[in-house]
Design goal:
about 210 residues; alpha/beta; Rossmann fold; eight-stranded mixed sheet; 7 helices; globular; binds S-adenosylmethionine
Length: about 210
């Protein structure tokens, strides 16, 4: 389901909106590490493509990564996909001046047909969202779904926390750097290259060939 202007004006529940706003505030105040990754996403995409591209962001949240990529990269269409209508509300405010190239879809990446009707993209990006399912063994199926919405020779750029120090402790929820690579390759990507590993997070670029 695409979110129209009317959908956005209907809003998520005020409780969910407050929760989403609280998360965003925390990220703006404490997520200093994110700048490194925003830049890494933008630089990597600029290295890979020199013509205007289409981008799908999975678990797009308040639209911070979207804003950066739209401002620094050549983008002709940017689709934001998230479970939360409240997050889309925040993102659509932030990206108001880019309405001609942005679209919003509400859905869960855990559902097999969640991307139906979206078409295929040059790049799918995802930041700090895959761990949200709280079970790393589900990532293969999620990535198998994602690969279907990527054009041939397109890329999946995925950033998330890793097990380690610095990093996370919950081995059921988070992957090691090697598991992240393995999961991408098991899902059908032909290559998975570590772009950067900083402060307990990694960014991988995986290609579909
Ligand atoms: C930790 S936030 C990260 C948001 C954004 N990527 C960022 O870095 O600013 C995780 C986001 O994933 C979304 N999310 C969680 N589970 C999801 C699912 N099953 N399908 C789609 N989105 C999901 C949440 O609503 C939230 O917006």
């Amino acid at each position: 389901m695409k979110i129209t202007k009317q959908d956005l004006s209907q809003k998520g529940s005020s409780k969910n909106l407050k929760k989403a706003q609280k998360w965003e505030k925390r990220m703006i105040e404490k997520g200093h590490y994110r700048e490194h990754f925003f830049k890494a996403f933008a630089d990597q995409i600029n290295k890979l493509f020199d013509t205007p591209i289409t981008v799908l962001e999975i678990g797009s949240g308040p639209g911070h990564l979207a804003e950066r990529l739209i401002q620094t990269n050549k983008i002709k269409k940017y689709t934001l996909f998230d479970l939360s209508k409240s997050m889309h509300q925040i993102a659509s405010k932030r990206l108001n001046k880019y309405q001609s190239i942005t679209e919003y879809k509400v859905g869960s990446f855990l559902e097999k047909h969640c991307f139906e009707g979206l078409g295929q993209y040059d790049v799918v990006v995802c930041m700090q969202s895959i761990h949200e399912v709280r079970d790393k063994t589900l990532a293969v199926e999620i990535y198998k779904n994602i690969i279907n919405v990527i054009k041939l020779n397109g890329y999946f750029l995925v950033c998330d926390f890793v097990i380690g120090n610095p990093g996370m402790k919950d081995t059921g929820m988070y992957m090691t750097e090697a598991e992240q690579k393995d999961t991408l390759l098991k899902s059908g990507f032909t290559s998975a290259k570590l772009i950067t590993n900083q402060l307990g997070l990694t960014l991988y670029a995986a290609q579909k060939q």
